[in-house]
Amino acid sequence: MAESFARANGGGMRRVGSMEWRWVSQEVNDAEEGEEAEEEKGTQRGDMESEEEDEVDQKLIRTSPRIDWFDVEALEVTGMQKNEDEEFDLGRTMVLTLQTLGVVFGDVGTSPLYTFDMMFNKCPIRGDDDVIGALSLVLYTLILIPLVKYVLVVLWGNDDGEGGTFALYSLICRNAKVSLLPNQIPSDARLSSFRLKVPSPELERSLKVKEHLESSEVLKKLLLVLVLFGTSMVIANGVVTPTMSVTSAASGLKVEKSNFPQDKVVMISVALLIIMFSVQKYATSKVGLVVGPALLIWFFSLGGIGTYNLIKYGSTVFKAFNPVHIYYYFERNSSQAWLSLGGCILCATGSEAIFADLCYFSVRSVQFTFVFLVLPCLLLGYLGQAAFLVANQTTSDQIFFSSLPSKIYRSASIAELGVMMMTTVLVTIVMILIWQINIFLVVSFVTIFLGLELIFFSSVLASVGDGSWVLLLFAAFLFSVMYIWNYGSKLKYESEVKQKLPMDLMRKLGCNLGTVRAPGIGVVCNELMKGIPAIFGHFLTTLPAIHSMIIFVSVKYVPVPVVPQEERFLFKRICPRSYHMFRCIARYGYKDGRKENHRIFEQLLIDSLEKFIRKEAQERSLQSESDYDSDDEEERSHSRIVMAPNGSLYSLDFPLLGDFVPTRNSSSEASTSSQKPQSSEAVPDYAQNLELELSFIEKAKVLGVVYLLGNGTIRARKDSWFFKKLVINYFYAFLRRNCRRGITTMSIPHTHLLQVRKTYMV
């Protein structure tokens, strides 16, 4: 069932011919046309932070997609959609199965080493029924959490093959504007991996949830807190789980040699952990192929030993599949049984890894491996241990040669449960907002699994003083770091938006920008998606000259895993053509590596710019003079004639190339320009203008590229409350100083780098 919902979600935005279905307000048709002009006007009135969305009725209508130059480029890419219905390849699935064992199922596979030991440390065995009851609890925990919740439901909530807490958050952000950073642009939705499903008219519940999420700052912050909390727990759990599994395995040496010292067990574990983490840099697929066969032997051995114990000690433990024994277990042991839940949940350790590590494998390979190999072997292993315990109730402390202190294990369970609960909440939102399934199924899912996890969590919290507080403290530290970074970045972005330069100022400065235009390309690195950053004004007033071509580059991380290289850059012209100024958005997914050399980046940037200019010339050649589009709608109300630096006059209806006037005509134009303008009926030579501008870019490229970095910082105002000053002026400032951001990761030579510092008071 979940698979069918997921496939319905993968169909993308519904289109009919060139039309698309969109949720719009009653007044949207008139409002969208003047969006760019209104944005510039809003800059002078206080801009984005003061904008408020009116609550108006919305309806699902079929409209023509709004096109600007960012969208023109985005639409040109054919896309690289994954085939959701690709044929099942048994051979490839078997190879992936082997790799999956080595990467995904190591934690849950080693859980039999310590689960029963931890349970019976809290609730000692008093008879056969206690063993049967504890086994029944373990069996249904395995069936409900790893199998039903993760393998059959949560795996289908992946973000284009990516799993984990952030993947769910990005999936939600793509379908609702819940990000606290207001840098979304419409063209992001045209990425080939940015697939949306518009809420259907029949399920108005989805729209209502979307509206509540988008309009409530409290809900946005709460959602972010949940995501950061879950991520902190994942990292904290990653600190404990490998140590727990490796040390438990090394403790098997004490079975044969009871006098084997514990300090040697610890040293062996440390050596194994160092080796394991050292080889991880050789790629996940290689590690999976190496470790996979070992874990394959382990699972077969686990199942074989369980089968042997069942044959030797009897099969009475199969009664545990009747869940009524769970009730009897709690009836007999009450509070002790409740405390033993902290040990029981360890059988599901690594369940979150089934989803988080999905990025390396396909959904079917993970499902195939768990259902047909991992789960049967685990069930046989636990059944065999229970059969052994029924016959040997006095040896409950050596069930599987485990001898670690119990406090190390209740640490693992509290982190695991924290991640599980966050996943349940996020998947519930995905069910309502994206999958749009029956509300009864949604309520059943959240009630069963969140209720079950809260019961386990209450048991773990009762023992938090035994050692789990260390893990919680570590997770709280990680959460604080991530939240402070998000809070400071949001304030910085909002300050830059409010102080960006108005387009009127650029027009008054003219195409020379009030200074000298020196040959070359200047790449102004900033975070704004629209408008000219205030830091550019500092460059104009600080530097003796500015480059003949300016490209404002904004590095934007979009809520998709990977952005294909051919979709990386989007361009838009700023001001008239004679200014030679462009806005570029360099888009990266949250899994894209930022390791390209600066020369490679420059080549890709310029190639994409030339491609944009050719596309723009082709589009404009098909338009009439009255349809001529500029970057700012207000330009249409001004004079249509401007004077170029050489004295020639040009119509704004034509693409401007003031710096490129054919030499054979320049003298005659200069002599007559002061007397009368060119005829408005002249037809521009688009091909010639295109070649001239491409030639201009080529000359500027040869003269070199210089990166103009605006090192913007924020400081709390003097009248701010003390805690805000502490967070912004010290904690966030420390994180900012020690973080390599955006283009600075490309190791740009100092000879190609200019920096100007600007401080924003927030």
Folded structure, characterized:
It is a single chain. With 762 residues, the protein is an alpha/beta fold. Among the domains are: 99-182 and 202-248 and 284-466, no CATH class; 490-620 and 687-761, no CATH class. 54% of the residues lie in helices and 10% in strands. The protein has a six-stranded mixed beta sheet with strand order 6-7-5-4-10-11, sandwiched between helices. Strand 4 (516-526), helix 24 and strand 5 (545-557) form a beta-alpha-beta unit. Helix 5 (90-103) crosses helix 14 (284-313), helix 5 (90-103) crosses helix 19 (363-391) and helix 8 (128-151) packs across helix 15 (324-333).
Largest sheet: 6 strands, mixed
Strand order of the largest sheet: 6-7-5-4-10-11
Shape: elongated
Number of strands: 11
Low-pLDDT stretches are 1-69, 71-86, 401-409, 624-683
Q: What gyration radius follows from the Cα positions, in whole Å?
A: 32 Å
Number of helices: 28
How do the helices and strands line up, and which of them pair or pack?
Layout: H1 2-9, E1 15-16, E2 19-25, H2 28-33, H3 35-45, E3 58-63, H4 69-76, H5 90-103, H6 106-109, H7 115-122, H8 128-151, H9 165-175, H10 204-215, H11 217-250, H12 253-256, H13 262-279, H14 284-313, H15 324-333, H16 335-339, H17 341-344, H18 351-356, H19 363-391, H20 406-435, H21 439-461, H22 468-498, H23 503-509, E4 516-526, H24 535-542, E5 545-557, E6 569-574, E7 581-588, H25 598-621, E8 641-643, E9 649-651, H26 663-673, H27 686-702, E10 705-715, H28 722-737, E11 753-761
Parallel strand pairs: 4-5, 4-10, 5-7, 10-11
Antiparallel strand pairs: 1-2, 2-3, 6-7, 8-9
